[in-house]
Design brief:
CATH architecture: Up-down Bundle
Largest sheet: none
Distance between the termini: 16 Å
Strand content: under 5%
Helix content: 55-70%
Order of helices and strands: HHHH
Structural class: mainly alpha
Radius of gyration: 13 Å
């Protein structure tokens, strides 16, 4: 199965996991998804010191800067498969 199809299946699978992943795993899934679909993050980091969630999302996505869509798609697939116990 082509990588794009595997990625789309992993997205679907991630929504039906038997247990909800912890916040760190959810952040990983988010950043891998964004890097895979949109590429490198642009814009400034949130400046509100109390905006922890968006700052964490920004930082996680920014940490993947320069990684290819294919690389992050594969990492997303691998992580979802691990969460599924596959």
């Amino acid at each position: 199965m082509p990588l794009k199809e595997q990625f789309e299946k992993a997205i679907t699978d991630s929504k039906s996991l038997t247990e909800k992943p912890g916040n760190n795993i959810l952040l990983q899934l988010y950043s891998l998804f964004k890097q895979s679909t949109e590429g490198d993050i642009s814009g400034e980091a949130p400046s509100n010191p109390f905006d922890f969630v968006n700052k964490a999302k920004y930082d996680a996505w920014a940490a993947l800067k320069g990684k290819s869509s294919e690389e992050t798609m594969q990492q997303y697939i691998d992580l979802v498969n691990k969460l599924k116990g596959a």
